[in-house]
Design goal:
6 helices, L,D-transpeptidase catalytic domain-like, about 30% helix, 2 domains, single chain, 10-stranded mixed sheet
Length: about 270
């Protein structure tokens, strides 16, 4: 499996433009040392997309070339909501893999669809179900939000249709890069904004998308385990699983000690009073 990184021309141009602006007027995006270039801050029109924190770029989250043995044709996208991967198939046996976050809606569709709408900095409106089920969060936003980095759809969105009908399934950016690689309470399929911008440029209307079922995910990716951090690892990665169990136990023990100390402190104050 090749670990070389895909870095499209647009990303390179955007990054260079940011360097030029910074040199001329201290206005361009800053570059973080040690951060992969494709995840650095970049100028996107009048918007600066912030750099992705290295803390979020674990092995499963970073885009990378991988061998691909699935049956889908070259040029298509494959979404795996259960392994939390998205593949863009470039040639037979080879694909670019992206880490994704998956919301409730992201697990509510399977099968094939077609991209029939593409938007830059899309307008977002919560669904009627979201408003009805969580009015304390979404009622005030029922009229929607204009596009921007503080919009849940992030920098770009691809809208999936089946037989000409909107599936309500979206592949989009995010306002919360810390969520990538995790399950979320709402939304469809989220990528880092840098990833969706580059994927958007390489997609087009009519692009085919396959969304895997749980059974297809298991057959292609094998079983996975969710750690206490919310990230997934292969069920065969016993070292990571054991380390996570120990870390979770240590955190629970520390929390228990802190709670006991707080109770003891309160009792002491009450006695003194």
């Amino acid at each position: 499996m090749s670990k070389s990184t895909h870095f499209p021309l647009r990303a390179a141009v955007a990054l260079c433009l940011g360097f030029s602006l910074a040199a001329c007027g201290d206005q361009g995006p800053e570059v973080t040392r040690g951060l992969p270039l494709e995840y650095s801050a970049r100028q996107d029109g009048e918007t600066v997309i912030p750099a992705v924190s290295p803390a979020y770029l674990n092995e499963r989250n970073r885009r990378q070339w991988v061998e691909y043995s699935g049956p889908e044709p070259v040029g298509s996208l494959v979404v795996d909501p259960y392994a939390r991967f998205l593949y863009h198939i470039y040639e037979p046996g080879r694909a670019m893999r992206f880490g994704i976050a998956v919301g409730r809606e992201g697990r509510g569709f399977r099968g094939t669809a077609t991209v029939l709408r593409r938007e830059e900095y899309p307008y977002w409106t919560p669904t009627a179900n979201m408003v009805r089920q969580e009015p304390e969060i979404y009622a005030a936003l029922a009229a929607g939000l204009p596009g921007g980095l503080d919009n849940p759809l992030g920098a770009r969105a691809l809208y999936l249709y089946r037989d000409g009908v909107d599936t309500m399934y979206r592949i989009h950016g995010t306002m919360d890069p810390s969520s990538i690689g995790k399950a979320t309470s709402a939304g469809c399929i989220r990528l880092f904004n840098q990833d969706i911008v580059d994927l958007f440029d390489e997609s087009g209307l009519g692009m085919k998308v396959k969304v895997r079922s749980p059974e297809e995910s298991l057959a292609m990716e094998g079983p996975v385990v969710e750690l206490s951090t919310g990230y997934l690892v292969s069920a065969s990665d016993t070292a990571a699983i054991e380390a996570d169990k120990k870390a979770a136990a240590a955190a629970a023990e520390a929390a228990a000690r802190a709670a006991a100390a707080a109770v003891a402190g309160s009792a002491t104050i009450a006695t003194a009073g």
